[in-house]
Design a protein that fits this description.
This protein has 17 helices and 15 strands. By secondary structure, the protein is an alpha/beta fold. It folds into two domains: 251 residues, Alpha-Beta Barrel (TIM Barrel); 77 residues, Arc Repressor Mutant, subunit A. Strand 1, helix 1 and strand 2 form a beta-alpha-beta unit.
Length: 384
């Protein structure tokens, strides 16, 4: 039974050149139509999962959810509470761009029920923001951050580092400044060149060179050193928080709990089923009109595939995975979940640790996480 609900708002004012998320630019959006459609999609999930809830987290992602009118957010939250119920300490997060127009809605969004905001600051340098294709400047972002901290109990913001030619000294200065603003959570992502993005085209055309792997690894280590010293240790490979301020919603994903996802392109996991909504907004709306939901595909996951996902997600966390618990959950042996000889080998190398039933990727191993996952989790499990 799921305890988390994801609501996808697919619209942006502009597509960022690094972004491969399901986001779209539209001249006009019929808010009433979208309210009706999102509620229909939500009701379908409630019917498909009787007895689910109360919800421990609701997450508005995108796209740019801060473009949603606050009254729409309020209506969706009211329906979610009616359908599933809310836990007393429910976490309700909304992703926001730090523009002055959107910051003006923060008070109304807080009144609608949002109690945690995640700001897409991305950089504290105007030249970097222009390179990243952002519509705000650094001063505007800091004003939005100040307003957010007045209205929301919990505030997180994102930064993108390992930008072309970025030095360790420049990143140390920028991150130290960011930490000084007192947010309880930071999402710090290395710039990656995703296929199909404008940045991928620019790199192919040699308009810029990505930062080399060794320099990026040095910045990764510096990031973890600075955040740990400031009391914001990494609890996931790219996410840092004061103890108790971790994103409960994202922890549901990484701990492989069931969750519902509604809106264009949203994924869900419930009762061993994987659901995927239509990506294109118009196709999703057509699905709602025809079937009462926007699902493009529902697929039964085998136990080995679920176990593989649980391992691959859980090893991203600083807490690692409880091997015995995953084996019991899916009726598998521990040796089906992890290669014993490779686990022993990488433990000797200091890249992983086994503490009782728990396997943890170490600080030394985290920069090599993707390669380690490919080594530790058996190929036949991943391919299941």
């Amino acid at each position: 039974m799921f305890r988390a609900l994801y609501i996808h708002w697919p619209f942006c004012l502009k597509k960022c050149p690094y972004c491969d998320f399901n986001s779209h630019v539209r001249a006009e959006v019929d808010t009433a139509q979208w309210q009706t459609a999102l509620i229909a999609d939500m009701r379908h999930e409630a019917k498909a999962s009787p007895g689910c809830g109360p919800l421990e987290s609701v997450f508005f992602g995108g796209g740019t959810p801060s473009l949603m009118p606050p009254q729409l957010v309020a209506a969706l939250l009211a329906e979610a509470e009616r359908l599933f119920g809310f836990a007393p300490d429910v976490e309700i997060t909304l992703e926001a761009n730090p523009s002055s127009v959107e910051a003006a809605n923060f008070a109304a969004l807080a009144s609608a029920g949002v109690n945690r905001v995640s700001l897409g600051v991305q950089a504290l340098d105007d030249a970097a923001l222009r390179f990243l294709g952002r519509l705000h400047d650094a001063d505007e972002a800091l004003v939005a951050l100040e307003i957010a901290q007045k209205h929301f109990a919990r505030v997180s913001f994102d930064l993108i580092y390992a930008r072309p030619e970025q030095s360790a000294a420049a990143w140390q200065s920028e991150l130290t400044r960011a930490i000084g603003f007192g947010a309880g959570h930071l999402s710090l992502y290395q710039l990656t060149i995703e296929p199909g993005t404008r940045f991928a085209t620019m790199v192919r055309e040699r308009q810029f060179e990505p930062l080399d792997d060794d320099a990026a690894a040095d910045l990764f280590a510096l990031t973890r050193e600075l955040t740990s010293a400031a009391g914001l240790p990494a609890y996931e490979v790219s996410n840092h928080a004061r103890p108790g301020e971790e994103s409960r919603h994202n922890l549901a994903y990484w701990r492989y709990a069931d969750y519902a996802g509604i809106g264009p392109g949203a994924h869900g996991r419930r009762g061993g089923l994987a659901t995927v909504r239509h990506r294109k907004p118009e196709n999703w709306l057509a699905g709602i009109a025809a079937h009462g939901h926007g699902i493009a595909e529902t697929r039964r996951l085998g136990v080995r595939e679920q176990a593989s996902e649980a391992m691959l997600m859980g090893l991203r966390l600083a807490e690692g995975v409880d091997l015995a618990a995953i084996a019991e959950r899916f009726g598998l042996t521990e040796t089906a979940l992890v290669e014993p000889r490779k686990l022993a080998f990488y433990a000797v190398q200091g890249l992983v640790q086994r503490n009782g039933n728990r396997i943890v990727v170490t600080e030394a191993g985290m920069p090599l996480l993707d390669a380690l996952l490919g080594e530790l989790v058996p190929a036949e499990l991943v391919a299941a």
